[in-house]
Write a structure and sequence with these properties.
The protein has a domain of 135 residues: GAF domain (Beta-Lactamase), CATH 3.30.450.40. The chain is 47% helix and 22% strand. It is built from 7 helices and 6 strands, in the order ααβββααααβββα.
């Protein structure tokens, strides 16, 4: 549980409990969509799943579970976070991390850059079964103080539940929830610093 100590230590240092603030939004997304909803936090060059709530739909994807880590650029949360880092940091990350060694050619630099560009265009990221075929995810970036990405809200489910016709509605819900959560995190930190 070293990851938990590190994350809780980071949260304490930042003077707000990110899990407690994110939990209602994770629950809301699960209830609203029927899918599994997740909040992942940035930890160095990775995202770490801190919270998960399953919706009512009986078939679930279990790629993301509490405590699992993935490098930035992998899974929808990692794409959502990486997309909104400064270009210089994206270039540095991609120059120093070969994601294909572990995750295959769908994680080659040109593929990652295409996903980052698409995420910047529509605001949310899509993982179309790049880790486990048939297991899809969508995520929206959560921003902390200074508009820096601190994590992402994610919806995961099976491919048939995340087809193109449903994506705009799910994406809009993710963006609205991530925006509100970002505002709450920023407000909470300001109040604690008074």
């Amino acid at each position: 549980m070293a990851w938990a100590r590190d994350l809780f230590g980071t949260a304490a240092a930042n003077r707000y409990d990110i899990r407690a603030i994110a939990h209602p939004w994770v629950r809301h997304l699960a209830e609203e969509t029927g899918e599994s909803a997740i909040f992942s936090a940035v930890r160095g060059d990775e995202t770490v799943c801190l919270l998960r709530e399953d919706g009512a739909f009986p078939i679930r994807s279990h790629v993301l579970y509490e405590g699992v880590r993935f490098p930035l650029g992998v899974v929808s949360a990692g794409i959502a976070v990486l997309a909104f880092l400064p270009d210089r940091e994206i270039d540095q990350f991609l120059a120093t991390h070969d994601l294909t060694e572990t995750y295959g050619q769908t994680h080659a630099e040109p593929e990652i850059r295409r996903r980052l560009e698409k995420t910047r265009q529509c605001g949310w990221s899509l993982n179309a079964g790049h880790i486990v075929p048939g297991s899809w995810g969508m995520a929206a970036t959560v921003f902390g103080p200074g508009e820096r990405p601190v994590g992402a809200l994610t919806l995961t489910g099976i491919e048939t539940r995340m087809r193109a016709e449903r994506q705009p509605g799910l994406g809009a819900l993710l963006l609205k929830s991530a925006h509100t959560l970002s505002s709450e995190l920023q407000r909470s930190r300001k109040m604690k610093e008074r």
